[in-house]
Amino acid sequence: MLMAEDESGMLGFTMPGSSRDSDATDRVGEVRTMFVLPAAWGRGVGHALMTAALDDLRERGHSEATVWSFADNERANRFYERHGFARDGSERTEAAWANIVEVRYRRSL
User: Going by DSSP bridges, is the β-strand pair 9-18/2-6 parallel, antiparallel, or unpaired?
Assistant: First the structure.
């Protein structure tokens, strides 16, 4: 886990690691979680966390990164696209997330 914090406490966190997808090869890493407190939005926290997560995946030897996002989460999806991710056509639903459609984003490292 990578965390961003300031004197007030935690601002956000991310968890990069190997992809958990059944169709992934060893070269694919995944940004498994990306969370920034709404009070910290627009302050560069998300950018710093994403940069650190992608650096971590490169250091682990991955050459691609994926991230899953809710299809209708326009704010998050714009964020991923600004960081070089594009939808790769994969979708899924999970009961744990009320079967809301998730889409997979992918980029080269």
Answer: antiparallel
